């Protein structure tokens, strides 16, 4: 495949945009080469500026769970755009999507919409601090909750990819209120709580981690966090920005039957437009302005185009109970195929998967936390990434990212992908 025009466009972009991209994970810095510039996308495929067609396993980093340019979402956005694109005043649409989200997700009475997952997590922490009147939070190494200051402490995703899990610019004052724990290690969390008695407002966790590759919670981990939170007056925040409306209608709370106190959303909830949200029981949400003292706001929050896209997406997921089963089956098929061909080619690997989130780690040991994820063989990953790209398959340009499977993928696409992995892994 030729990426001539993409390379030219990247050179132009670099002159006026730092690193040529508006979000670091889009750059190919970790794998070498220059990013692909997209012209359009439909269903499971991306079409780039050089005329190549790529099977897409990133899906805008998660939102496009039903494929690109999903007709009901596009139609809803186009229809709304004719009626005005932003008012800064309430609309009926906001109540409709809020009511639907509240009906789909367990344990929430009220939801507030924002413009990104970052804003959702940042606001959830402020709300938890305002509610508990405590300052500290616990986060897990390798989990990513967006780029607000409190979370850029051993953060996952692009922050690890680019070697800056602790970003300059985050003050020591902010960093000291974020306590770090190991994912899947309850004893570690217990020790932190004991050492900071009555000071911890919240534990924030990706209930299925996706930003150090996919890492499932081990048996009892989420249950243990729930118990520790309940016993110590700490709020449990599930960051379901990746998992919400993807792993089940009601996200991980539904999938594993665990109750969180505050839940954060992003990605799928906006149908591909810039949307985030956070939700909780009324008792907690009523602390938010204008009802309560915890301030949170947004000029474009609840934007009509974004809400129209999100509503159409949630309606589609709510109306077809079989979608999540199909996603599970397609991803299990892909995982089994990858396992088969990598074994046949004597590659050392571990596949982690929950529902339609999957990742291939080039290491033999179980990948259960940041430390074990970081052990993966990056040189092999680079060959894997570029080999697949040449075969017309687009996975994230970083070993620390999860693949997001879309219902638009056919079994033929999956077979093409498995064959390509077979071919590429012969060259390792
Ligand atoms: N939380 C999680 C779990 C995420 O994966 C992400 C983004 O990848 C975020 C929060 C931040 O969301 P956004 O990029 O929309 O700000």
TrEMBL record:
It is found in: Cytoplasm. Its EC number is 5.4.3.8. Its cofactor is pyridoxal 5'-phosphate. The lineage of its organism: Bacteria, Pseudomonadati, Bacteroidota, Flavobacteriia, Flavobacteriales. The keyword Metal-binding does not apply. It holds the Pfam family Aminotran_3. This is Glutamate-1-semialdehyde 2,1-aminomutase. It catalyses: (S)-4-amino-5-oxopentanoate = 5-aminolevulinate. The gene is hemL. Homodimer. Keywords: Cytoplasm, Isomerase, Porphyrin biosynthesis, Pyridoxal phosphate. The keyword Cytoplasm applies. The modification N6-(pyridoxal phosphate)lysine is found at residue 267. Pathway: Porphyrin-containing compound metabolism; protoporphyrin-IX biosynthesis; 5-aminolevulinate from L-glutamyl-tRNA(Glu): step 2/2. It comes from Flavobacterium ammoniigenes. It comes from the Bacteria. Belongs to the class-III pyridoxal-phosphate-dependent aminotransferase family. HemL subfamily. InterPro entries: 4pyrrol_synth_GluAld_NH2Trfase, Aminotrans_3, Aminotrans_3_PPA_site, PyrdxlP-dep_Trfase, PyrdxlP-dep_Trfase_major, PyrdxlP-dep_Trfase_small.
């Amino acid at each position: 495949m030729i990426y001539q025009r993409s390379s030219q466009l990247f050179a132009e972009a670099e002159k006026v945009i730092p690193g040529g991209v508006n979000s670091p994970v889009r750059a190919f810095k970790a794998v070498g080469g220059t990013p692909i510039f997209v012209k359009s996308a439909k269903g499971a495929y991306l079409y780039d500026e050089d005329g190549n067609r790529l099977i897409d396993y990133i899906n805008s980093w998660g939102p496009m769970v039903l494929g690109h340019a999903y007709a009901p979402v596009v139609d809803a956005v186009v229809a709304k755009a004719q009626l005005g694109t932003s008012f800064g005043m309430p609309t009926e649409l906001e109540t409709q999507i809020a009511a639907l989200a509240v009906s789909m997700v367990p344990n929430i009475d009220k939801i507030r919409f924002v413009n990104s997952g970052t804003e959702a997590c940042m606001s959830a922490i402020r709300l938890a601090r305002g509610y508990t009147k405590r300052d500290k939070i616990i986060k897990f190494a390798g989990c990513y909750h967006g780029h607000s200051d409190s979370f850029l402490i051993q953060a996952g995703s692009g922050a690890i990819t680019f070697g800056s899990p602790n970003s300059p610019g985050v003050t020591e004052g902010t960093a000291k209120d974020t306590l770090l724990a190991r994912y899947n290690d309850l004893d570690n969390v217990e020790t932190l709580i004991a050492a900071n008695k009555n000071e911890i407002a919240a534990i924030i966790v990706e209930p299925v981690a996706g930003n150090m590759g996919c890492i499932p919670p081990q048996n009892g981990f989420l249950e243990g966090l729930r118990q520790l939170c309940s016993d110590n007056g700490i709020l449990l925040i599930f960051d379901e920005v990746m998992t919400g409306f993807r792993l089940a209608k009601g996200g991980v709370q539904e999938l594993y039957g665990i109750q969180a106190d505050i839940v954060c959303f992003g990605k799928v909830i906006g149908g591909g437009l810039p949307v985030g949200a956070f939700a909780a029981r009324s008792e907690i949400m009523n602390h938010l302005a204008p009802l309560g003292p915890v301030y949170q706001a947004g000029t474009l929050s609840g934007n009509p185009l974004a809400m129209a896209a999100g509503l159409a997406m949630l309606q589609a997921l709510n109306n077809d109970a079989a979608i999540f089963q199909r996603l599970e089956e397609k991803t299990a098929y892909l995982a089994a195929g990858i396992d088969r061909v990598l074994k046949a080619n004597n590659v050392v690997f571990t596949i982690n998967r929950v529902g339609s989130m999957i990742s291939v780690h080039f290491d033999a040991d179980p990948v259960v936390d940041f430390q074990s994820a970081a052990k993966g063989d990056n040189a092999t990953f680079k060959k894997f990434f570029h080999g697949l790209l040449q075969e017309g398959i687009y996975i994230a340009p970083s070993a620390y990212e999860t693949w997001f499977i879309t219902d638009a993928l056919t079994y033929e696409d999956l077979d093409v992908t498995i064959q390509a992995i077979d071919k590429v892994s012969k060259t390792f």
